[in-house]
Amino acid sequence: MTVKRYLYRKWLMLYSKIVREKASPEYIARGWAIGMFFGCFIPFGLQLVCSIPTAFLLKGSKIGATLGTLITNHFTIFIIYPAQCWAGSHLLGGTLSYHAIETAMADVLKEQSYEALMKIGWELVAAFFLGGALLSVIMTPLTYWFVKNLVIRYRSRRAAHMAARKAREAARVTAPSGK
């Protein structure tokens, strides 16, 4: 299977989970926005601990809150975290290079210890949270808007399809038989 086909199948599965949830578009979008917020802002591993209770408090989709945090999964974390640390470092006026950040993050993920985390230094930790806040401020409303519109468009097309189907069935039933 090609990468393109694999990604397309994954997108279809995700799309199906989003649009077929039995709730209002706002409820679904709120959950996904919550998940995206914590996926961008909170370090990997603590995201679900924060996103699910917040989804209960803010009356958002728990499925969306859970899946929305997966933006920072094992594959994307190597792209997103260094980029947000680099952006945060520049906002702080720091001098961290993208390569230095990438190396420090890889060491933390490889060793998975507090000692490795403490070696990165407070400048990188501050840059992580500032860059994460920036990413969250951008991605949270975009996610809400995108998911809400995706659900509305899907349901509108589905309703039109069902109405056309009922009209065809009604026309077939009322049509005179050609005997």
What does this structure look like?
By secondary structure, the protein is mainly α. About 80% of the residues lie in helices and about 0% in strands. It has eight helices and no strands. It has helices at about 5-20, 25-40, 45-55, 60-70, 75-90, 100-110, 115-120, 120-175. It is elongated, with a radius of gyration of 22 Å. The chain starts with a helix and ends in a 5-residue tail after the last helix.
| Rg of Cα set | 22 Å
Helix fraction bin: over 70%
Overall morphology: elongated
Which parts are unreliable, with pLDDT below 50 for 5 consecutive residues or more? none
Number of beta-strand segments: 0
Distance between the termini: 52 Å
Please describe the biggest sheet, giving its number of strands, its sense, and whether it closes into a barrel: none
Average pLDDT rating:
85
List the secondary-structure elements in sequence, H or E. Answer: HHHHHHHH
Give the count of helical stretches: 8
Protein structure class: mainly alpha
Beta strand %: under 5%
